[in-house]
Amino acid sequence: MTTILDGRTIAFLAANEGVEHTELVHPWNALRALGARVVLIAPEEGFVHTFRHLDRADRLPVDLRTADADSSEYDAFLLPGGVANPDILRRDPATHRLLRAADRAGILIAAICHGPWTLIDAGLVADRTLAAWPSLATDLTNAGAVWTSERVHVDGRLLTAQGLEDVEEFTDRVIRMLARSTP
Question: Residue 171 has what pLDDT?
Answer without folding.
Answer: 98
